[in-house]
Backbone:
C-alpha cells in the first residue's frame, strides 16, 4: 500500500472512533450548525499537530512520566465532567443557534483544542502507538515524512468536515422535543469519559 494512502487511512482511523471530540462535534453541529462544529475539529487538529511536533523532536517519553500523567488525568477528567454537566444543564438553551457566529466559532475552537490537549486517550495514541510508527517510518522513508504527515492530517480533516456537516444537516430536521434528549445523552457520555479518566487517575496515584 502506498505510504500516502496508509497515512490517510490512519488519519481516518484516528478520528472515526466515538470519543470526546466526536461527541463534542456532534453536539455542536446539531445545536449550533456546521462552522462551530467544524472548528471544534480544527482546534483538535491543532493539538494533534503540536503532538506531532513534540514526537518529531523526540519528546514522546515525557508523556509516560507519572507526574505528567497525573496532570493530564486531572485536567482531562475535570474538563469532560464540566462539559458533560454543561451539556445537560443547557439542553434547552442549546436549541438556539448562536446569534454571534464569530464568538461561537472561537469558543468551539478552544473547546476542541482543550479536549484534545488533555485527553489521555488521544495523548497515549500519539505518543505511544503513533510515535513508534512515525519513528519507524522516518527511519525507512525519511524523504517522504512530510507527505505522510500531510495525508495523515488530511484524513483527520476529511472526517471532521463530514461529521460536522452530517450533524448540522440532520440537526435541522430534529424536533424541539428530541434535541434536549440528544444533548442529555451527549452530556452523559462526556461524563462517562470524565469518570473513566478519574478512575485512571486513581490508578496512577494509588
Residues:
Amino acid at each position: 500500500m502506498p505510504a500516502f494512502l496508509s497515512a490517510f487511512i490512519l488519519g481516518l482511523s484516528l478520528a472515526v472512533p466515538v470519543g470526546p471530540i466526536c461527541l463534542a462535534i456532534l453536539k455542536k453541529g446539531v445545536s449550533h450548525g456546521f462552522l462551530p462544529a467544524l472548528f471544534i475539529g480544527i482546534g483538535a487538529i491543532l493539538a494533534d499537530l503540536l503532538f506531532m511536533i513534540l514526537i518529531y523532536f523526540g519528546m514522546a517519553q515525557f508523556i509516560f512520566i507519572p507526574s505528567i500523567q497525573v496532570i493530564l488525568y486531572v485536567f482531562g477528567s475535570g474538563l469532560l465532567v464540566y462539559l458533560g454537566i454543561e451539556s445537560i444543564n443547557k439542553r434547552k438553551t442549546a436549541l438556539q443557534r448562536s446569534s454571534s457566529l464569530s464568538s461561537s466559532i472561537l469558543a468551539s475552537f478552544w473547546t476542541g483544542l482543550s479536549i484534545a490537549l488533555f485527553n489521555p486517550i488521544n495523548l497515549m495514541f500519539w505518543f505511544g502507538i503513533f510515535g513508534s510508527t512515525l519513528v519507524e517510518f522516518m527511519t525507512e522513508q525519511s524523504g517522504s515524512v512530510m507527505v505522510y504527515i500531510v495525508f495523515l492530517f488530511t484524513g483527520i480533516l476529511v472526517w471532521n468536515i463530514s461529521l460536522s456537516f452530517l450533524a448540522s444537516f440532520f440537526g435541522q430536521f430534529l424536533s424541539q422535543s428530541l434535541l434536549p434528549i440528544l444533548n442529555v445523552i451527549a452530556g452523559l457520555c462526556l461524563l462517562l469519559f470524565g469518570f473513566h479518566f478519574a478512575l485512571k487517575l486513581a490508578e496512577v496515584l494509588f
About this structure: The chain has one domain: 3-205.
